[in-house]
Amino acid sequence: MAGPGPWRLIPHLAAVLCAVHVAAAQFEPAYEIAVRKADIPFIKCDVCKKMVEQLDTQVEREREKAEPKKVSELKVIEVTEKLCDVKSANGGWISRLDIVESGDLLKLVEHEEDGECLSECKTIERACQQIIGDYDTDIAERIFNDEPSQSSLQRYLCHDLSKACSTKPPPVPEGREPGENWQKKDNSPPDYSKMAKEMNIPTSVMHDEAAIKDVKLPKGMGMPEEVFKRGQEKKAAEEARAAREEAEAAAGGKKKKTKKGSKKGSRDEAMGEMYSKAEEAAKGGREEIVKFVEKMTGKKVPETEPEAVGGYDEL
Q1: What's the whole-model pTM score?
Q2: How is the chain classified by DSSP, letter by letter?
């Protein structure tokens, strides 16, 4: 017997626990996947050339959208600023690249589809960021004002500004450890039923709307108690700092910006924060839980009956 209404079950306990489960696999790697820094000198020139290709293609696309008017300089700046962010639409090209050895060189091989962003993807992203550095506005102005050809833009970015292609890449040292194989990105909807079953979530709880208010998330899903505690402590410290800075700003008659936490926060702090947010979402009802699930998985919760992803009878 299937649950009531379109995805009324998903916003309950299963959704929150599944989101935590998925986060352990998808969110946690963001803090653990290492950039292969030693590979960057060998791929920097090829990455720069790919960047120029993307700039040329993406800006031309924006020009076509803007016709009959001229594309705005702000739009060109936006494309340039987001070019090296693999999570953005403008930086998605990075995940399609694979680093492969070719003799004593490293080459970039492009796939037609987006891939999972693992260590090689992160390495290409880092190389892109190093190349563009603080030149994003300069590059955008050059593109907007001069509309240079691709070869001209390549000389400007890869030789004049970044020097990425000013010297021949060095030979790859013997014994270099190869990176992981390129993997196609999985865009299928999360299988909540399967994940809930793996975590032994009882059907009775999942079918009881009231039960969600009293449920506590189980331990042992990659987030030990000490991890959760550190995350809560960090959150409390940041809230206290923000309150203190607001009070100081008010006393001084100035509006002061609160500094954000480091993007490179430790794995323990990140997982602890995520665990805490999962508990808060569990108490916020359907809308908050769906938002949490979609944020953690990066996928839209489909408006379909539970049977479409396996149902809950099998639990």
Answers
A1: 0.57
A2: -PPSTTTSSTTTHHHHHHHHHHHHHHTTHHHHPPP-GGGHHHHHHHHHHHHHHHHHHHHHHHHHHHTTSPPPHHHHHHHHHHTT-TTSTTTGGGGGEEEEEETTEEEEEE-SS-B---HHHHHHHHHHHHHHTT-HHHHHHHHHHH---HHHHHIIIIIIIS-TTSSPPPPPPTTPPP-PPP-B---SPP-HHHHHHHTT--HHHHT-TGGGGT----S-SS--HHHHHHHHHHHHHHHHHHHHHHHHHHHHT---PPPPPPTT--HHHHHHHHHHHHHHHHTSHHHHHHHHHHHHHSS---SS-GGGGT-STT-
